[in-house]
């Protein structure tokens, strides 16, 4: 007990790349940015994430 478990290598679990909420096949918003698909919980998060990417440069 108390040790860290490496649950990252599980695989299938997707989370919103903007807010980190867990995504299900029924509730998923896929948005392609620069040819790469990103997964979000809603359109709002997709636009928020894209805006953050653009602000970097
Ligand atoms: Zn989200």
UniProtKB/TrEMBL annotation:
<protein>
    <submittedName>
        <fullName>TRASH domain protein</fullName>
    </submittedName>
</protein>
<dbReference type="InterPro" id="IPR010507">
    <property type="entry name" value="Znf_MYM"/>
</dbReference>
<dbReference type="Pfam" id="PF06467">
    <property type="entry name" value="zf-FCS"/>
</dbReference>
<dbReference type="InterPro" id="IPR011017">
    <property type="entry name" value="TRASH_dom"/>
</dbReference>
<dbReference type="GO" id="GO:0008270">
    <property type="term" value="F:zinc ion binding"/>
</dbReference>
<feature type="domain" description="TRASH">
    <location>
        <begin position="16"/>
        <end position="53"/>
    </location>
</feature>
């Amino acid at each position: 007990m108390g040790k860290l478990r490496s649950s990252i290598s599980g695989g299938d679990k997707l989370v919103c790349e903007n807010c980190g909420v867990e995504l299900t096949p029924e509730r998923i918003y896929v948005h392609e940015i620069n040819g790469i698909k990103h997964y979000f919980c809603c359109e709002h998060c997709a636009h928020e994430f894209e805006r953050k990417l653009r602000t970097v440069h």
